[in-house]
Amino acid sequence: MKTVLLTCAILSVATAATARPAAKTAPRAPADPTATTDVEGLTVTPVAQCLDPKPDPDAPAPRVVSTYPADGAVIRPGVLVVRVTFNTPMSCKGFFSGVPPFHNPCPDRQQNWTLSFNRMSIRTVCRADANLEYGVAISDRSENRFISLANKPLEPYAFRFSVSSESEVRTIRESLAEDDALQAAAQAASRPQLTPVRVKALNGKPQ
Predict the structure, then answer these.
(1) Degrees (nearest 5) of the Cα angle 179, 184, 189?
(2) Contact 151/128 with Cβ under 8 angstroms?
(3) pLDDT exceeds cutoff 70 at 142
């Protein structure tokens, strides 16, 4: 049986070979939804609670906006926090699976998620080994289907990535930092570029 557990804390350890969380009681998440804190070695990321889907015919159909790793990306081996961001708030229904013949970075039958406060990003801790190719499938089967809060199913989606032979990512924080850098670069690239325009002075001469 496949299960998904929602967790509000991520343990930052030197090396993680499994997606299962440490057997510790997580401290309360900070009040600031964007903040993270360190408590006794725990990196705490605020998360939302699971809500049951409620039909809303006017809500948009869910779709994947971005992932980490991105489709076709090459990443470092080691600890990997897989992220999927959607265009609409999601419920906790769904399950990540593999894409044969590629390796599955999250093979456990139990997945532990963090759900962002706006319920539009889901993260789970996995692992990627050097010099291999991986694939992640989303909503590929009926029992794995992701469902939005508006009770609308996500259409099947998959992304693939490769792993280099560079130095290993050894902590969850390090993996999150690489994802943050990717998102920052994407936001910078999407900003409109302003072209300088010559302005005429009152006397008619260009400035």
Answers:
(1) 125
(2) no
(3) yes
What is the CA angle 149-152-153, rounded to 5?
115
> Is 145 contained in some domain?
yes
How far is residue 30's CA from residue 35's CA, in Å, rounded to a whole number?
7
Residue count (the chain):
207
Contacts of 9 (CB under 8 A, 6+ apart): 21, 24, 26, 27, 29, 42, 43, 44, 45
Domain count for the chain: 1
Each residue's pLDDT tens digit, 115-134: 888 999 999 999 999 999 99
Residue with tokens 């964007």: 34
DSSP-derived secondary structure for 34-100? T--EEETTEEE---PPP------TTSPPP-EEEEESPTTEEE-SEEEEEEEEESS-B-S---EEE-T
Q: Residues 146-180: pLDDT tens digits?
A: 999 999 999 999 999 999 999 999 999 999 999 98
Closest C-alpha to 36, from 23, 47, 25 = 47
The CATH number of the domain holding residue 118 is 2.60.40.1220
In a domain, 183, yes or no: yes
**Residue 179 amino acid letter:** D
Domain encompassing residue 41: 3-188
Query: Is 181 within a domain?
Result: yes
Tell whether 91 is covered by a domain.
Answer: yes
